[in-house]
Amino acid sequence: MSWSNLQNKPKGAQLSIDGFYRSVNNEHQLNQEVAKLFSSDLGNKVLDYMKSITVDAVAGRDISNDQLRHLEGMRYLYFIIKKRIEASKEA
Predict the structure, then answer these.
(1) Which residues are paired to 88 by β-bridges?
(2) How is 28-77 classified by DSSP, letter by letter?
């Protein structure tokens, strides 16, 4: 599957959920694959675990800038996965 960053937009590509450019077909295929991967009971348990350590995690007032950035990065990845699952249902 071909992809590239924002500075190297391939011809005919569109901006993806994750901020990279992909063809419409590659984007659709990726959404379907992610949805299939997480559609089982085991996949749902993994998503629940990921949510518990990201979205549900509460950062205390003493969290460092680096720790907060790390947590936000993990949350971002969790929501990319969730968005791809939702996008697979729309297609």
Answers:
(1) none
(2) HHHHHHHHHHTSSHHHHHHHHHHHHHTTT----TT--HHHHHHHHHHHHH
Written as six digits, the tokens of 12 are 């005919």
Cβ–Cβ contacts within 10 Å for residue 80, how many?
15
Residue-range domain boundaries for the chain: 14-90
Give the residue, 22 or 1, on which the prediction is more confident.
Answer: 22
Which residues are within 8 A (CB) of 47 and not within 5 positions of it... i.e. 6 or more apart? 38, 78, 81, 82
Digit-coded pLDDT (tens) for 78-87:
999 999 999 9
| CA angle 80–85–90, rounded 5-degree value | 120
Q: Please state, as a whole number, how many other Cβ atoms lie within 10 Å of the Cβ of residue 12.
A: 9
Q: Measured between alpha carbons, how far is 39 from 45 in angstroms, rounded to an integer? A: 10
Residues 6+ away with beta carbon under 8 Å from 61: none
